[in-house]
Design brief:
It contains four helices and no strands. It is mainly α. Helix 1 runs antiparallel to helix 3.
């Protein structure tokens, strides 16, 4: 029985904690790969969905201006879409990191929660909850 308790303590405070943080970093790395930040920033001003008006279909300055304006609008829309996708990715990664770090900080205290809750229940402390 003592070996089981020591094994649990060894896992919880050393190997489990280390594994938790390794998995957290792997999850954040996977999330960054999912949002493809490198590709987003490398193609930031590329046309949206590669929609391009191509060359002017009508001759003259008005045709060229129309094609140039079409490409400019497509690139502007692409930049806006990529910006918001990158922003959403950064927010999601930051939220996951914050919650992961909070869990990592609370991790060593979790085995004491049942004892603490039993003591609180026996003392009659209800934190304003009336059942």
């Amino acid at each position: 029985m003592v070996m089981l308790a020591l094994s649990l303590i060894k896992w919880w405070y050393f190997e489990g904690w280390k594994t938790f943080f390794r998995l957290l970093m792997q999850k954040i790395s996977d999330r960054a790969d999912y949002f493809s930040f490198g590709t987003i920033f490398r193609t930031f001003f590329s046309p949206f969905r590669q929609i391009d008006t191509g060359e002017a279909t009508t001759p003259g300055l008005s045709g060229r201006l129309s094609a140039w304006l079409g490409r400019l609008i497509s690139r502007f829309i692409g930049a806006i879409v990529r910006f918001f996708i990158a922003l959403a990715g950064v927010i999601i990664i930051l939220v996951e990191l914050i919650f992961g770090l909070l869990i990592g900080i609370i991790w060593p205290l979790i085995p004491f929660f049942p004892v603490a809750f039993i003591v609180l229940a026996c003392s009659g402390l209800t934190f304003g909850v009336n059942l």
